[in-house]
Structure formats: structure tokens, C-alpha cells
Amino acid sequence: MIKAGIIGATGYAGAELVRILSGHPECEIAAISSVSFEGKAISEVYPAYYGLNDMVCEDADSVVEKSDVIFAALPHGLSQELAQRCFDLGKIFIDLGADFRLENEDDYKQWYGGSYVNKELHQNSVYALPELFRKNIAGKKTIANPGCYTTGVPLALAPAIAGGFVELKGIIADCKSGVTGSGRGLTQGTHYPDLNEGFHAYKVAAHRHTPEIEQTLSHLAGQKVKLTFVPHLLPINRGILSTCYARLKPGVTKEQLRKAYEEFYKDEYFVRLLPEGMTADIHNIKYSNFCDVSIYTDERTSTFIAISAIDNMVKGAAGQAVQNMNIVFGLDEKCGLEFIPPAF
Amino acid sequence: MIKAGIIGATGYAGAELVRILSGHPECEIAAISSVSFEGKAISEVYPAYYGLNDMVCEDADSVVEKSDVIFAALPHGLSQELAQRCFDLGKIFIDLGADFRLENEDDYKQWYGGSYVNKELHQNSVYALPELFRKNIAGKKTIANPGCYTTGVPLALAPAIAGGFVELKGIIADCKSGVTGSGRGLTQGTHYPDLNEGFHAYKVAAHRHTPEIEQTLSHLAGQKVKLTFVPHLLPINRGILSTCYARLKPGVTKEQLRKAYEEFYKDEYFVRLLPEGMTADIHNIKYSNFCDVSIYTDERTSTFIAISAIDNMVKGAAGQAVQNMNIVFGLDEKCGLEFIPPAF
Amino acid sequence: MIKAGIIGATGYAGAELVRILSGHPECEIAAISSVSFEGKAISEVYPAYYGLNDMVCEDADSVVEKSDVIFAALPHGLSQELAQRCFDLGKIFIDLGADFRLENEDDYKQWYGGSYVNKELHQNSVYALPELFRKNIAGKKTIANPGCYTTGVPLALAPAIAGGFVELKGIIADCKSGVTGSGRGLTQGTHYPDLNEGFHAYKVAAHRHTPEIEQTLSHLAGQKVKLTFVPHLLPINRGILSTCYARLKPGVTKEQLRKAYEEFYKDEYFVRLLPEGMTADIHNIKYSNFCDVSIYTDERTSTFIAISAIDNMVKGAAGQAVQNMNIVFGLDEKCGLEFIPPAF
Amino acid sequence: MIKAGIIGATGYAGAELVRILSGHPECEIAAISSVSFEGKAISEVYPAYYGLNDMVCEDADSVVEKSDVIFAALPHGLSQELAQRCFDLGKIFIDLGADFRLENEDDYKQWYGGSYVNKELHQNSVYALPELFRKNIAGKKTIANPGCYTTGVPLALAPAIAGGFVELKGIIADCKSGVTGSGRGLTQGTHYPDLNEGFHAYKVAAHRHTPEIEQTLSHLAGQKVKLTFVPHLLPINRGILSTCYARLKPGVTKEQLRKAYEEFYKDEYFVRLLPEGMTADIHNIKYSNFCDVSIYTDERTSTFIAISAIDNMVKGAAGQAVQNMNIVFGLDEKCGLEFIPPAF
Fold first, then answer.
1. Backbone phi, then psi, for A91, in 5-degree steps?
2. Which of D23, D284, D313 sits opposite A339 (nearest CB)?
3. Exposed, middle or buried by CB within 10 Å (0-12, 13-18, 19+), for B133?
């Protein structure tokens, strides 16, 4: 059994890791930590786990010591030192935060305001979006788990961009996220009466996930891509729907695009390319690691539209982190992640 | 007192008209009708009105007879004959349906599958989006009240398009609507467990409001405009948020746009142009006739973003219809519509 | 025009007072105050009011000075000194908090932990639930506005208890409240993802409204009444449904009870006694000052069941406070409160 | 592998059985049927299952033929003939409907309007609420799976009644159910805008689950028990909270009750008796087979209060049916049911 540790277990992503790893057949949770709740049981913070997982939160050092693989679900800026320590101890470090996601340190400085302490460690890390960069992951010790929007948008657009079917200028991602994406911390905007029966955009064209999405799209395109990214907050708990728009290149047909998508995702268990007539819906992927994708062409305006739906807490965070653990440890990528989304 | 009649009073738009007109100081409801509930009280259908408005639904003929102004909230195709009758009787007809909205009969044929019975009647009708076409409304007998998306999207974009600040190619409207927009009729998609905690697009680039939006934008631009329009369904009762994207023309600045918007809407009571730092939110306009607009420029990608929020049942239907009635009857345009949106 | 002031205007009850008084034809808001937001506009706190009410929050002294009637929406313990000051100045003080609600100081000590500074002021105050104690209100300067549960439960049970139809032992009130009842302050329990798709009881048989409800029921019964009161938190914004149970006295019939209820409420505009076949529903009274009541007898178990629905922010707080202002100033009790609840 | 068949697979309970059995390690789904969707894939009805379970709905005969155990999730009245056929073929029949739940045929006639075709079959069937009647289940071929309310209320009250701690007269169950309890069929009451932001009771003291709850409580008490049962509809998808009230017998203490509950449930994996300070919440048991119970005594009124929370679709339907299958087939009762409830 792989011994897994979770640092930051009482945040939402950490708590979801606890849930998913509890059902993983090849892995056991060795230790969990939390700065805010050290000494308290995870089930005091999340009574849903009462009697099922009552592990007590320790400190980060204990987690590192007891574990083969360390998941860190921390605010950005706190992972670099931990990653270094794990690397030095020969342990796998899977970072659900942003510290290792951006290849270009300048982007990190601009959007997050920090710097890279050990550039070599960053160079040895891998940006682990398995469906797009699987071959880079195996053998790595420092795993940068993508963010939520940064999983949903690229999976919607990848075959169109990689195949050269759309213009690289003018790409737009209009995304709508459930509120768990904002975390467990209290804010006025996530106070129930303020959010309920409302809907709005936030950080319009100014969200930190922008450079990370652009990095992935640029790798797919083989050249620098910029996009306009506008996230919105949905009054639901889970899920992200990404509606992405790109100008079709002249002569590209609907049939070409469908064929390209089918080919691109034909071996991807966790991406469900929906047939014509079905539309990606957050309703259908909640509590699962699936990414549903539906595609459209608006011939009136020569616009390609790709929509993806993921559970921001699973494929957009904890589930993908477990998928990456499976890859690193040579397990079946689906191991512990095959739960069917509930129908309602 | 103006005598108002409502045909189709038991649909959502009709019921909202009942509510709004009940509080209008210069108007009284003379009669209401409903095909499905003839002979029943409106308060049997909507118990919220019990004891406050228990009017019994009659037939359409009675409504026409008893009223000075007839509001029709009917499925498309049913208004033309009624409008003709009202016109012949010299009565005002305000159509909340689609039969008089499209100037080009071909568009109507293509998107709705019908034809124009009396072309002259159509030529004498007016497309009544007051903030954009106010001067055309007074003196008209046949009033085409705009639809919901077709109010929200043009009000978001009008100053940018009218002022020539954005490219007319590649405009995108990504809209999210509360579920009352789908009406009172039962469908699987609006069954509570199917919609709740879900979110999806529908009629992607194929919604009937497309030609109506394009008609308005074309008038503003002085030339034919096409756009890509993708509506989504929100798990909330009311409200539409329209996030609209357009390419900035070279050299256009953020400041120019703000000034243009301020100028364009400076006398418009029902459009609240929000200052920088505030974002249009459905939460803030529910149950009111206001349209909140917030604007952004993404300089990284030369993209202009305008977001509007309206209550689809008020500014997007019944409220705007009353606003049009006020104009036609020479009342203060705000009369009976000055309710402040609740804060929660 | 009556000059009204609101102390604590940025809490939910205060903000709702702003909304309701803005539409009151005989009253204008002279000043508002807020400790947390002094110097800020109410519309910065509640952007729904932007452009419609941008009054700046002053301090409590200014409000008292500028107003004929002072509404205080404050945490308990803060109203006594203010009430005294208003009394000394000959101004009307309407307290939406708990400081003047309990006649028995011991109850106040036990449940709130405070004491009565000026007992005479308390004796001159009035507990102002108009439908039950209207005749006591006129002429008073210090008005204790009832709480939310303490409005809903007595209005459900009053005719049955006053008429002697039910046993006074064993009365149960199982209440379910929308989340605005918990106020604007952030708590983990009102964080969107924690509350959404959940439902639970709180302060089981230990809520501070217990002695207040018992006080009212005891007045109605003419003897000391105790009840079991269990509140629950609903994942909706507004409204309280109170399902109340009492043992029928031997021989009492369903018909007797209905007649008693009809008689008791026949002149009460704001209480809608629903006919058989209709059931009180929060859906039907939202954003209004109405209290819907439906009654049932379970003959199998000789149990009487009365259910009331109110909007906790209107009839349970700000609306009732305005109703009380109307009474004190000799206006029509309905003045400014006749808004029909929206049907959806 | 046990071969399981599901008759009525496209209703909510049937679809939930599909989901749960898909993850069961000792069982495979052999066939499914649906009257409404015969010939269609279950994933056409529930796109959440797309690509994961695309089984095509057959007719009931095929299901019976191919399966060792037949689950029937049908409207009442349709199971008796099927049960007979399975019995004759020596196959296990687990009925999620009401046809075999009531021991007294008169109750069935009164509340459901049908009769028992083969009384012997009914006598050989078992009412299978495992935590209360486990020892009766093994060896039976016809299994009556309890309803949702009829699981939640008895599990809340069982130790208090079985131990003789409370009066048997005057028991009240005030229950609140998520809307999936109303099924997949469309009704005005479950139309999104009608239910959302509302809350109401229904079938007040007249719900068909009343005699079934009374039957269970009577077994526990050793004498006939009647109760007052009032269900309410929550605007959430899943879960039932049952708040139950009973008069304490003289001298009974809080400590006695806690001890009795601890003893009663000490070996029950699926019942989580919560310690003082924790309150049963639908939020914490969603998508799981757990029943959380919290207990209280109101000493002021000598009232005992027990609250249970279950997922109506799992412990209240499909999960409990699988639990019963496990018992009948001699598997670990938890097999395939150990999923931890998500924390949000």
C-alpha cells in the first residue's frame, strides 16, 4: 500500500483528497495536517466523515515523514520549501497549489508576486495534466497539479488548437464555476444570501489562471497563444462549465473537427466526448473525475464553440491529483477513480 | 385610469404583468384571460395572489372589449390576429411575443416558421426597446415588446457599437438565464432535480433570439451585424447575465469607452452604468426594471467586455411592457416601476 | 412627511427597512447609521440600491436628531440607552431587537444575560404584534417589534389557544427559517457550500425566542403556557414556515376551529387564512408583509396542526416595524406595505 | 458474481440502483427494464452514465429471466404479480415499492386502495429494515424494502420506544424531504421556479407512509402506536430530516436515553449516533447509506426530541435495497456501500 499524506487537509481540496483516497484500493492515508486545526480530527471540521475518518491533524513535518507521496493543498507560496524537502528525501510531492505550474518565472512574479527559490527544482518538476502531457509525468518527483479552470479550458480546446483548426487570436473562455472553487474561508461573496439567486463575473480578464491556460494552449499550438478569460460564480457547490470560442480557419468543416476530437480523445477514459445532440452539463459529472466535452460550429459566424464540464474538486483538483499519483506509481490511471457520477 | 387587459395571464410573463399592474397608480386591470385556466381565478394558479387579486380568467374577446390597452403574453404565432383586431378597434396592443419583433419577414419564416398575415400592420408596428428606440414608440398602436436576451445583449453593447469603438465581426454574447425564462410549462429540463446543482448551454448558436439581437445591433451600427449567441440555463428563478465580447478597434481606449457609455446612458433611469470596481450581478436587479451594465477592456488581447444584468421577467418582459405602455399613454416612463430591487 | 431614521441600517433588517421606507408614501428616510460602515453609502454595502438610495451612514446621534421615528436594528443589549434618549426627546423608538420584548426581566436575564436599566421605560413600552395586541400600541413611544419566529408561531396558534380549543401542555413548534434570519455576519454555517443542499435543526429547545413565544401564548391563554420550540435552517434566503402541533381538547371539531380562525382573522389584512386545500408556503409570501395560515386536524391522533408562513425580513422584521409605525402615527396600517408577493 | 436485474430502472430509485450496483464488487447488473424507455439506453435517460453504463432497457420478463435477484422500483400495485413469478422461479425479489410493506391488508386497502392477491406470498415476505428486523430477513425470497420516511422516523425513535422511555400517545414526526422523493415524473410542484426558494408541508397527517411507520413503531413498543406525521418538501435534491417528538415518561433522564441509544446502535455501521453538540444534518449523509441520529431532551416541557438524517435515495431506497441483498446472499452487509459521504 502506498502511504499518502495530505498537507492542508481541512481545506476543500484537502478534504476531497481524504474522501477519494479513503476509497483507493492501493493507497492508505498515513497522516494529514492542517495549520488551522492541528490537534483536531478531520471529522470535527467535516462531520460528514464522522466515524469513517477521524484522523487527527498533525503538523506538516509528520506528514512528510510518514508518507511516500505528499499532497499539498495550500495557498500559493507555501509549497516550494515543502517540495524541496520531499525532493531531498526522495519522496513524491504533488502540489495542488500554483507554485510549480508556471514555467516562466516572470509569469509567476507578475500574477502571484513571488519568485522561484530553487530554479532547478522547478525545471525538474512537471505540469501534470495527464490527457495532454502524460508522457512527461512518469519518473518525476515534483508534480504540479493543474488548477480547475486550467483543466477545463484546455481540455475543451486542445484538439482544435493542436490540429490547427482555429485562429489563435481572439480565443475566449467564458467560464462558470461552483462556489467550492472559492474555498472554505468565509467571504461576503460566498455568504449564502449574497450568492444565492445571484450570478456575476469576477476578476474579469484578470484571473491568475490566465497565464497557466495560455501556457498549455501555447504548448498545444507550438506558438504563443493569448486568450480572454472571464470567470463567473455559480450558486451551486461544484463544477465548472467552460464555454470556449475560437474563430474557425477558412475551409475548416464541422466534420473535420468532430473527427479530430474523436481521434484526440479516443483513449482517454476521463474525457467523454459527447455525440451531437448532447451538451456538456455540470449536472452529469458532479462527484466524478470525468470531463464532458461537447462541440459546435456556428457557420453563420465561422465560430467554433467547445464546452467542457468538470467537477472542480475532482478533475479540477483532488481527483486529478490522484490520477497523477496513479501515473507516478505505475498504477492503472483509473484506480480509485472509477465512481460513476450520480444521476441527480 | 387606463384600463389594461392581459391575454395569457397565467403564463409567467402574464402573471408578472398582473403583479406589476396591480401596483400601477394610473392603470387598473380590466380583465384577464387564459386558455388553460378559463373560468378559474388567477390566485388559484398563483396562490401568492390569494385575496389580493382573485380575478377570474375570461376569454380573449372579453379582454379586448374591456380594455384600452391589451397586453398579450402568448406563444409566437397567436398575436397577429389579435393585434389586427385591436388595431381596427383603435386600441393599443402590446405584444410580449415574437410576432412583431422582426422587421424582415424572411427572418421570421426562418427562425419561427410563420409568415406575416398583414404586412401593413407590421410596418405600422414598432420594436419598442425604449432606451434605444424611444422616439419611434409614441403614437404607435402595435407595440412589439422585446424579448429577454434581446434586451440584455443590446443594452450591454449599444454604446460601443453605436460609437464605432469595436469591430462588428466576431461579436460574442454568452448569456445565462434564470429558469423562469423557460416558462411555466413542465419540461424534464426544468424539473427541479434535473436542473438543481447543474448548469449547461442550450440551443448553442441556434436560439431564436439571434436574429432579433442582430436586428438591433445592425440598427445601432448602421450596417448588418452578426453575432454568436450562446444561452445557458442557471439554477435560479430570475435574471439574465449577458457577457458580451467584441474586438476593440485599433487605438480605442478604455477611457473613450467609459465616456461613451456615460454619455449614452446619462438620462436613462433604468440603465445603471456601474463605476469601475462594481460588476453587474443578477443579485442586484431581481424584481426590478433596472439593467445594470459594467464594462471592461482586456488590453492583453484588445477585447472589450460588456456585462449586463436584467430581471428577465421585468426589464426582459412585463416591466418593459409597462414602460412601453407609459410611453404610449404619455405617462412618466417610470410610473409604477420605481421599485427598488431587494438587497437579498 | 414623517422623518424616519434607521440605526443599524447595514444589517439585513436595517437594509430591508431602507427598501420598504423608500416606497412609503407618508414617510421619508431622514438619516441612517451603521457602526461598521460609518461614512460609507448604503449602496456600497448593498449595490442593489446603487443610484436609488446612496445615503451615507452617519452615527446614531445624527439619526436620533434628524428623525421623528427611530428604528433600531441592533444586536440585543444596545437599544436601552437609545430608547431612553428617544423617550426623553419625545421621539418614537421602534426596536427591532430583543431589549424590550420580554415583560419579565428574569426571562431577559436568563436567555439574554442582561438586565433592565430603567424599569419604568420597560413598563411604558409595548410589545407590538399588531394582530394580537393592536389596542396597546397607539400612544406608546417605545415599541418592541417582535422577532421572526415569535411572529409566525403565535399567528399560527392564536385563535386555537385564545378560543380554548387545544391543550396548553405539549404544544410543539417545529420551525424552518430562511438564512437571512442569521444576519449578514459571516459564519461557517452560512457559508454557501456548507448550507446548500443541507438541512438541520439548531439550538434545539434552546432558542432565545422561546420565552417570547411563551409570553404571547400565555397572554392569549390567560395562563402560563410552555412550548417545545425547534428551529431549523433552510437553504433559501427568506421566509419562515412554522408547523405547530397541539392536542385537541375532547370534543372539539374541525369545523369549530375553522370558524374560530375565520372569526379571529376576519379583519386582518395581513393574515391570509387559507381555505381547505391550500397550504401555507414560503413561496407565496416572499417579499411581502403577509402571514399565510393553514389549519388541519388529525382525527386519528386528536392533534391540531397549524402552519404559518411569513417573510422573516418583512412581517418578521422590517415590514412589521413599518406596520407599527403606521399605527403609532395614525396612518392606514397597510400604508406602504401593500406590495403583492411575486408569484415566483 | 450475483446477477442483479432492475425493473423500473429509469425511475430515480432504479437509476440509483444502477449507480450503486455498478460499484458493487460481488454483483453485476444482468439486465434492466423500463416501460417508458424500453429499447433505449439508460444513459440516454441519465446522461451522467454516458459511456459508463449504456445498458439498454428491456422488458420485465427478460430481467426476471437473466437475474438471480430482481429489484423492482415500481409504483405500488405492480409488484405482486412479479413477486409471485420470482418466487415460483426461486429467485430473490426485492421490492422498493409498497406492495409488501404492510402486514395488515386492511391498511393497504385503506391507504393504497388495493388488495393482496396471494396472502401466502405476503406472509412469506419480510419487512426488511435491517437495523430493526435483521434476523427476519435471511432465508426470505420476497423482501419488502422500506420507504424513505419509514426508514428515517423509526431509526430516530427506535431505542426510545423499545426501551419504554417515552409515552406512546402524542408522538409527532415532522419530516422534511428533498425533492427526488417525488420521483422523476413532472409535476407543477416540482417545476423548478415553483419549488425553488419555497417550502411547504404536503399531505398533512394524510401521507401513505403513516401506517407503515406505525407498524414499525408498534413492533418496537409491543403494542399499537399511532403518530402524527407531517411531511414537507425541501428545495434540495436529496435527503430527509425527521424531527421526532415524544413525551418523556416521568423520571426518565437524558443520561438514560443516551445510554439506551448507544447500546441499541453500538453494532450498527450505518447508524451514526452523534455525540452531544453535533446535530443530524442532511448535508453530512448525502450520497451515502448512513443514518445520522442526534437526540435531545427538553426538560422544560418533558419532551424527547430525536432527529435523523438519511439520503432518501440511498438509505431510504436503493442503498438499503442493496444492504438487504447483501444480507440475503450472506455477504458482508456493507459490501458495495462503504462510500464516505462527500463533505460538500
1. -105, 155
2. D23
3. middle
Which of A110, A153, A200 is best to mutate for the B interface (most B CBs within 10 A)? A200
Q: Which of B27, B57, B148, B175 is catalytic?
A: B148
Reduced to 3 states, what is the DSSP secondary structure of residue D265? coil
Contacts of C344 (CB under 8 A, 6+ apart): B12, B15, B180, B237, B238, B313, C283, D193, D194
Chains touching D (at least 3 CB pairs under 8 A) are: A, B, C
Neighbours, chain C (3 or more CB pairs < 8 A): A, B, D
DSSP state of A315: I
Residue C123 grid cell: 413598563
ipTM above 0.90, yes or no: yes
Q: Copy the grid coordinates of residue D57.
A: 432497457
CB-CB contact of B301 with A228 (8 Å):
yes
Contact A297, A257 (CB under 8 A): yes
Name which of B174, B234, B237 is nearest A174 (Cβ-Cβ).
B174
Which residue out of B40, B184, B192 would a mutagenesis test of the D interface target, given it has the greatest number of D Cβ atoms within 10 Å? B192
CATH 3.40.50.720 placement within chain A: 2-146+315-328
Angle at D311 between CA D308 and CA D313, to 5 degrees: 140
- What CA–CA distances, in Å, run from B21 to B79, B113, C78, C283, C342? 21, 33, 42, 21, 12
| Cα C325 to Cα C313: distance, rounded to the nearest angstrom | 16
DSSP reduced 3-state for D166: strand
A to B CB pairs, distance under 8 Å? 164
Backbone angles phi, psi at A179, to 5 degrees: -80, -15
Question: Which candidate in D57, D86, D148, D244 is catalytic?
Answer: D148
Using a CB-CB distance cutoff of 8 angstroms, which residues of chain D are in contact with residue C236? Answer: 196-199, 235
Over the stretch D244-256, which tens digit does the pLDDT of each residue have?
999 999 999 999 9
- Given a contact cutoff of 8 angstroms between Cβ atoms, the answer to whether D72 and D79 are in contact is yes
Residue A326 dihedral angles phi and psi, to the nearest 5°: -55, -45
Averaged over A98-103, what is the pLDDT? Answer: 97
CATH T-level fold of B149-311: Dihydrodipicolinate Reductase; domain 2 (3.30.360)
As annotated, the residues of chain B forming the CATH 3.30.360.10 domain(s) are: 149-311
Closest CA–CA distance from residue C286 to any residue of chain D (Å): 8
Calculate the average pLDDT of chain B. Answer: 97
Question: With bands split at pLDDT 50, 70 and 90, how would you rate the model's confidence at A305?
Answer: very high
- How do beta strands C291-298 and C271-273 pair? parallel
pLDDT (average), residues C303-327 = 98
The answer to whether the Cβ–Cβ distance between A197 and C12 falls below 8 Å is no
Residue type, A170: G
Dihedral over alpha carbons A247, A253, A258, A259 (to 10 degrees): -130
Cβ of A44: how many Cβ atoms within 10 Å? 17
CB–CB of A192 and C235 under 8 A?
Answer: yes
> Among all residues of chain A, which has the CA nearest to that of C235?
A192
Rg (CA), chain C: 20
- As a whole number of angstroms, the distance between CA D87 and CA D234 comes to 38
Chain C closest-CA separation from residue B73 CA (Å): 16
Question: What topology does CATH give the domain A2-146+315-328?
Answer: Rossmann fold (3.40.50)
Angstrom CA distances, A12 to A238, C169, C194, stand at 11, 46, 11
Which residues in chain D touch residue C284, judged by CB atoms under 8 angstroms apart? 198
Residues of C classed as catalytic: 148
Q: How far apart are CA D236 and CA A98, in angstroms?
A: 34
- Nearest CA to D49 out of A319, A273, A284, A238 is that of A284
Reported as a single tens digit per residue, the pLDDT across A240-254 is 999 999 999 999 999
Q: Which of C192, C200, C311 to mutate to test the interface with A (most CBs of A within 10 A)?
A: C192
C-alpha cell at B306: 460588456
